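Re-running the complex after MR caught last week's input typo. The corrected sequence lines follow. Everything else is unchanged.
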Amino acid sequence: MANIQKLEQTVSQVRRDIVRMVHANNSGHPGGSLGCTEFLVALYFEIMKHDSSFNMDGKGEDLFFLSNGHISPVFYSVLAHSGYFNVSELATFRKIDSRLQGHPTTHEGLPGVRIASGSLGQGMSVAAGAAVTKKLNDDDRIVYSLHGDGELQEGQIWEAAMYASAKKVDNLICTIDLNGQQIDGSTDEVLNMGSLEAKFLAFGFDVLIVKEGNNMTKVVAALEEAKSRTGKGKPVCILLHTEMGNGVDYMMGSHKWHGVAPNDEELAVALAQNKETLGDY
Amino acid sequence: MKKYTYTETKDTRSGFGAGLLEAAQKNENVIGLCADLTGSLKMNAFENEFPERFFQVGISEANMMSMAAGMTIGGKIPFTGTFANFATSRVYDQVRQSIAYSNKNVKICASHAGLTLGEDGATHQVLEDIGMMKMLPGMVVINPCDYNQTKAATLAIAEYEGPVYLRFGRPKMPVFTPADQEFKIGEAVMLNEGADVTIIATGHLVWEAIEAGHILADMGIDAEIINIHTIKPLDAEAILKSAEKTGCVVTAEEHQMNGGLGDGVAQLLARKNPTPLEMVAVNDSFGESGIPALLMEKYGLTRTDIVKSVEKVIKRK
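Corrected-run output:
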């Protein structure tokens, strides 16, 4: 059984890291990062079999690909607390000569990152490719990917979805962060995508809907359920309803905090709402 | 002028197909992806022998490129196949981010490059691909000249670790390079030693350069002819040595003047040893439908154009 309380303690520390990283260089994307914190903590601390000594090929391991690379703060914090690199390196985020680039990349050799992402829409294809290679290698582990909901406006996502379904890439779990926000406003205002459930079902995915994507118990249960649905001839899609900015009250539910850093006062408020549980970097 | 003979003409894409099959026989990690152009890319033999290692992705080149990048994770060596236009301009961002910037061991194999695609016209006749691909940091760019060289190049890139763009084409060209040649990435091939001018050619223009060499010999001009199959990394040593010797250079390629082989040679010479240079290439223009030979003539990519450029450049010495 998952130790939910312990996972939630990690979530609190990751949220502190996110706002501190973004505040420290006055740039980055706190909103989506905060909204996906439960998901990434659950994945790395409960669900995936993975090895923080890091080998690019990841044979015998579950793999994760972050397609919406702009939520790098949450990814970096979770990787650091998982042991891929020292948490002190989080202080270098977005600074010159850092391995923690604005968007994740393999280019500077940061352990835990297997592909560059940032230009949206490419990660589902990458994940499908890695999943196919796992099959070729008789490797029965699972490939996970995370996508923003606004990112689904990119056509390549649907090319990848069509492929994964047609070719029965059933060792693939693609999660969509449904926070309903993108840079210019709500996803409904910017480009209404209609029913994503209907779309993914029509594309041939096994679809799970998680209404409380910021509830750790629900997220862990959903990921366990998704795992149990792999290997049955269909790729799996989790539609994860989250709240942009979750955990910091003044950021919650608004697209305004997609790519804006808090000032000193705002940081203090955010930190007061998220306890230091594992020690600040 | 050294004589080059041939007994048959073949398309360079068939050299790719033969090379891919042999590379796959040698290395079980070699896999192939194709975006609904298996026959055009001559990937059928590979598909027939290794159906479990062949991935038909349909008409979705963006997905193919990023998927190929993902497939390297776990040790596979993906060869992607589609037309040069759809392997470069259509998917530049996928190639840039998922393959080049991520430094993935993907071999982007591209057929029907240039005007010699012929009747399909300018939508398909990409003349900018070399420029786009050579601008990407870490990308190797290869444009072989005949069937044998394309086959040898395909085998060589399977052994090389890192992203590669391999460009070839549709028309049947004289097969004049040795079947057993060793292909060294980044190493120019000296076809004829000469004293009066250096002709540096790539791809289909290499045979035209040889034919131009004979015409020039009859005119009393002794041309040095170099086959540059690897445009990046460029064999700077071979080019500088030859330019130093002959004192003038003509480049020839089936590509835009902007961004092509000639641009690279010009940059090298300007920085290291300014030398009079003329370029045989498409001059800032799209192509059009037509018989390949007539298109090459209309857009100035024949042996006659090479000869004219040589006469012009020699006067500038």
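None of the earlier attempt is carried over here. The CA atoms of residues 145 and 174 of chain A lie 5 Å apart. The mean pLDDT of chain A is 97.
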